[in-house]
């Protein structure tokens, strides 16, 4: 009954109450794929309406370009996203967030040097942004720059946001490369406690234990890494199958 009511509310333009009904229904029936599909479709429609309203106010505003870029980015249309984010940067080069969006689009494509340039520009506008500090350090590691160079923004990221586990994991990776496995263990054990099923953490733990001469623990972590990698691959395959089923049933 509640799902049918949600359908009716959304169909008649009452999206807000309709999505509330859907969320309530999904809290009790979290495996109903049709309901999840309807919720996602409704959110997409709401995003399109919001963007239309923003464009009606000023299609050449920083906000309009950033939101359009985010939509392009979500669809992996990175060329479109870069074009929109570039326009936002040109309009407001000193506005926090503008360079981050552009840098993140480069980062998602593995264009590390371009990403670093934009992250550094963002940090001049917003030096306390720990996510930008982390992604700067991450891109330096990914480009195989000296780990001593990457450790600087990673230290700042962890200092500003101790709960940013990605920064801790990347800092541990840099510390292992700097032959400081004992220090790396501090970050890795915290990260493992937060995300025990993340394969990359166990892989780095194996490297740190090996460097410390603890072969038994290293072997155990490699086994955990392999098991979690296999499970992650199986889960991804299952999710892809579910998506195809939802697409087929919606046609």
Mind sketching the topology for me?
Blueprint: H1 2-11, H2 15-28, H3 33-57, H4 62-74, H5 78-91, H6 98-108, H7 112-125, H8 130-142, H9 147-160, H10 165-177, H11 181-194, H12 199-211, H13 215-250
**Total discrete domains:** 3
Compute the number of helices.
13
What is the string of SSEs from the N terminus onward? HHHHHHHHHHHHH
Helix-and-strand structural type: mainly alpha
**What is the number of strand segments?**
0
> Under the CATH scheme, which architecture of the largest domain would be assigned?
Alpha Horseshoe
The largest pleated sheet is described as: none
- Overall geometry comes to flat
CATH topology of the largest domain: Serine Threonine Protein Phosphatase 5, Tetratricopeptide repeat
Q: How would you state the average pLDDT, rounded?
A: 90
Helix content: over 70%
């Amino acid at each position: 009954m509640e799902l049918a009511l949600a359908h009716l509310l959304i169909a008649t333009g009452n999206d807000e109450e309709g999505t509330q009904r859907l969320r309530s229904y999904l809290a009790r029936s979290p495996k109903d794929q049709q309901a999840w599909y309807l919720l996602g479709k409704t959110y997409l429609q709401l995003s399109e309406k919001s963007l239309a309203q923003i464009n009606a106010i000023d299609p050449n505003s920083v906000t309009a370009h950033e939101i359009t870029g985010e939509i392009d980015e979500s669809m992996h249309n990175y060329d479109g996203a870069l074009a929109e984010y570039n326009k936002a940067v040109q309009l407001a080069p000193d506005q926090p967030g503008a360079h981050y969006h552009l840098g993140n689009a480069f980062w998602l494509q593995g264009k590390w040097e371009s990403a670093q340039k934009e992250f550094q520009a963002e940090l001049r506008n917003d030096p306390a942004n720990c996510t930008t500090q982390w992604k700067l350090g991450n891109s330096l590691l990914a480009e195989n720059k000296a780990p001593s160079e990457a450790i600087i923004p990673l230290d700042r990221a962890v200092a500003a946001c101790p709960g940013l586990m990605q920064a801790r994991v990347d800092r541990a990776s840099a510390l292992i490369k700097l032959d400081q496995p004992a220090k790396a263990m501090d970050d890795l054990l915290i990260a493992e406690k937060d995300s025990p099923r993340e394969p990359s953490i166990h892989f780095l733990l194996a490297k740190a234990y090996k460097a410390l001469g603890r072969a038994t623990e290293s072997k155990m972590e490699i086994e955990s890494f392999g098991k979690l990698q296999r499970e992650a691959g199986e889960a991804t395959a299952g999710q892809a199958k579910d998506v195809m089923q939802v697409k087929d049933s919606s046609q």
